[in-house]
Amino acid sequence: MVMFWVSLLAISILLYVVLDGVDLGVGLLFGLANGEARRGAMLSAVAPIWDGNETWLVVTAVILWGAFPVVYADLLSAFYLPLIVMLLGLILRGVAFEFRYKTERLRWIWDLSFAGGSLIATFIQGMTVGALVEGLQFTNGEYSGGDVGWLTPFSVLCGIGLCLGYALLGACWLVRKCEAECRDVARRQIPILAVGVLAFLVVVFAYALAENLPILHRWLDRPYLFVFPAIGAVAATVLALSIVNHNDYRPFHMVALIFVSAFGTLALSFWPYMIPFVITVDQAAAPQSSLMFMFWGGAVVFPLMLLYTVISYSVFRGKVVPTAGHH
In sequence order, which residues have a C-beta less than 8 Å from that of residue 100 and are 6 or more positions away? Predict the structure, then answer.
């Protein structure tokens, strides 16, 4: 049961990062867009899927709450303030998405809110991961790092890096879904964003070496982890070739593969810890009776959500068609 719920948690997090990373990335690029036609095309590219993507964040929270309550409690103790701000950012962008169609004179406010909410949510997600990688302060299994113990130069750097990564994912999605100017502008943005992501990875690795972060020792102990960066390097090469050849569909798949390889590297670097290097999976797990009770819900709901996601993306496949009305 423990491995079952760990697997579901990993899948939920990965699906959230890749899928909601798309519309968060589009939201980041939305702040750079000019012209109502281009902005409308960008919103149409994510309109059918954005709220369903965020459901995987809810699933992640529910699994932590029910199957790994110790981790849920400790992470909330550490990240109360940034997580509340992140949720407010997600709410703001959801409200702005709907309200911008109800006004013309004040539409610029809701456009700014959509881009700003995307930026806030993305930055805090990256900053949270960075704080976990660097290591939080715990005493006797309880968080003792203070109200802003998560705020470090490394966590801020990771927040900026995820903004670049999500923007790259969003640009590839726009190339896949849009036509004409919107697609062409997004295609020109991809090389710039890709170079930015590469520069971020170099800086992060240099910082980790300089600070001798504990996670680096995992790489020395587990050389098989280098398989994932190798996969990412191959995907980056195919991405570059697809941009040169003006392929509309391959860039998104390659960037998604890069995210999958990065997630696999991080997850296996943490294993068997859920909070590195403080609480292991076995220490964090709820009693077996609780895991079994939750199993019946997970065994039904999780496959239905996967089926819904597949059907949703299948129904709304292909290029978007500009419309005069809402969405």
Answer: 107, 110, 111, 114
- In order of 31, 39, 48, 51, 111, the CA distances from 103 in angstroms are 18, 15, 21, 22, 11
pLDDT tier for residue 175 given thresholds of 50, 70 and 90? very high
H helices present in the chain, as ranges: 2-15, 21-30, 36-46, 50-67, 69-99, 107-134, 153-177, 180-211, 215-221, 227-244, 250-270, 281-284, 288-315
Residue of 40, 54, 200 whose CA lies nearest to 121 = 54
Domain assignments of the chain as residue spans, ordered by start: 2-315
How many CA within 13 A on the CB side of residue 326? 9
For the cut 70, the answer to whether the pLDDT of residue 322 exceeds it is: no
CA distance 168 to 251: 10
Contact 190, 168 (CB under 8 A): yes
Q: What is the pLDDT of residues 4-63, one digit of tens each?
A: 999 999 999 999 999 999 999 999 999 888 888 888 888 888 888 888 888 999 999 999
Q: Which amino acid is at 200?
A: F
Contact yes or no for 175/187 (Cβ under 8 A)? yes
Radius of gyration of the chain (CA): 20
Cα 188–chain centre separation: 23
CATH 1.20.1630 assigned to 2-315: yes
Q: Which two tokens stand for residue 215?
A: 């996670």
Q: How many CB atoms are closer than 10 A to CB 126? A: 23
Residue 96's region, left for phi above 0, alpha for psi from -120 to 50, else beta, is alpha
**Secondary structure (3-state) at 143:** strand
Q: For helices 36-46 and 21-30, give the axis angle rounded to 10 degrees.
A: 170
Which residues on adjacent β-strands are paired with residue 280? 273
pLDDT digits (tens, 9 = 90+) for 129-151: 999 888 888 887 788 878 888 88
Q: Please, are residues 257 and 235 in contact by the beta-carbon 8 Å criterion? A: yes
